[in-house]
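During the no-cost extension, the postdoctoral fellow (Dr. R.K.) reprocessed legacy sequence entries with the updated structure-token encoder. One reprocessed record is reproduced below for audit purposes.
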Amino acid sequence: MGHHEKQGSTFDAGRHYVRICKRRPDGFIEFEFSIGDPELAVELMLPEPAFHEFCLGNEVIVLDPATSDQGDWVSRLNDASRQGFEDAV
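Re-encoded structure tokens follow.
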């Protein structure tokens, strides 16, 4: 019952990360936001001007865009979770 840390990496709550997943035709940007560890992220979506303001305000480190492998897996997972909620309603 302790903290499990990756060997060789340290958690730094002062570091904020952004990885752009998709630029949508309607002007929104889908992205992942992480604090301290880029492997643990939440997915967010903002209009492009708000996205840039968000990045400046959080002094983010911009990560490489999601590779097709990551994006496909994340997209399939999101689709599956949404489908489960839609079926339940």
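The first strand starts at residue 16 and ends at 23. The first helix runs from residue 48 to 58. The remaining legacy entries will be reprocessed before the final report is submitted.
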